[in-house]
Amino acid sequence: MSFILILLPVFGIFAIGFIGQKLLHFDIPNLSKLTLYLMSPFLALGTFYKNPITIDYAYLAVYIFVLCLALILIVTILSKIMGYSVRDRCALILASAFMNNGNYGTPVVLLVFGATGLHIAVILMVLQQLAMSTIGIYYAAKGSADVSSYKIVLKRVVRMPIAYGALIGLFLQLAHITLPDPLLTCIDLVGNAAIPTIMIVLGMQLAVISFRRIELLKVGFALSIRLLLSPVIAFLLTLFLPVDTMTKQIMILLAAMPTAANTTLMAVQFDTKPDLVSSATFISTVLSIITLPIVLALIQFVG
Fold first, then answer.
1. Mean pLDDT on 206-230
2. Comparing C-alpha atoms, which of 106, 59, 56, 71 is closest to residue 231?
3. CA-to-CA distance for 129 and 126, rounded, in angstroms?
């Protein structure tokens, strides 16, 4: 029941976007561009500015990036074996390698582990944001239908402002520069608006999908990696990291989260199979009602 209560607002916001698109027919690519270029950089800036850097970041950063790269490698190998195109492979990477450990994972950790666990979840959320702002953008741009060279891919990655927002926030924190309250309020207002807007855009994208044309095999491919294989790899990684038992449990739990909604924005913006990515995001969120309690039961045995 607790999971359902956490998910109700999530699906409620999806529904707002879905109904709004059906009735009003918004321009989804432009709304996606608004969120990616204008709102998300402020979310990244505020996140990195407010959360103090500690030694925990080193271990958790290694974990986040190794997990991400391991999942990308697995998707790449399996996609080549199955003969998928570069565009398909990049869409599957977006759907498989990046988990929703922010507006979904963080409340779950707070519910299960309390305030102590929340601090770890926030650090992982920040690092995941950095991974999506760099590696995620790279694969979204690489999977674009009109990309013909790596030079174009790198140019598009460099033009994305999310990573710059994160770097500015990190610099301000490390340099001990205190932002004035009015400016910080402005950053918070715009950044906080990014999360519900991302979810609304996902709902809109679901409204224009023809479910009869959903590539079920590829969606199942992404869901198997995101919900089943990812927590297994996370468990193996925790065996080599010098962190306490609770931190290991949180790392595994967050690795089992559904696909991050931000990936839909990236897929829409670069036209990287947005129907595939958005349907994987939505279905993985629904299925997590079943998979997460199982993962929660299993991590009790992690020591």
1. 87
2. 71
3. 5
pLDDT exceeds cutoff 60 at 148: no
Assign 3-class secondary structure to the chain: CHHHHHHHHHHHHHHHHHHHHHHHCCCHHHHHHHHHHHHHHHHHHHHHHHCCCCCHHHHHHHHHHHHHHHHHHHHHHHHHHCCCCHHHHHHHHHHHHCECCCCCHHHHHHHHHHHHHHHHHHHHHHHHHHHHHHHHHHHHHHCCCCCCCHHHHHHHHHHCCHHHHHHHHHHHHHCCCCCCHHHHHHHHHHHHHHHHHHHHHHHHHHHCCCHHHCCHHHHHHHHHHHHHHHHHHHHHHHCCCCCCHHHHHHHHHHHCCCECCHHHHHHHHHCCCHHHHHHHHHHHHHHHHHHHHHHHHHHHHCC
pTM beyond 0.85, yes or no = no
* CATH of 2-301 given 1.20.1530.20, 3.10.20.30, 1.10.150.20, 3.40.30.10: 1.20.1530.20
Percent of the chain at pLDDT above 70? 92
Instruction: Tell me the pLDDT band of 146, cut-offs 50, 70 and 90.
Output: low
Domain ranges of the chain: 2-301
Q: What is the mean pLDDT of residues 214-226?
A: 92
Give the residue among 128, 127, 53 at the shortest CA–CA distance from 97. Answer: 128
Q: What percent of the chain shows pLDDT beyond 90?
A: 39
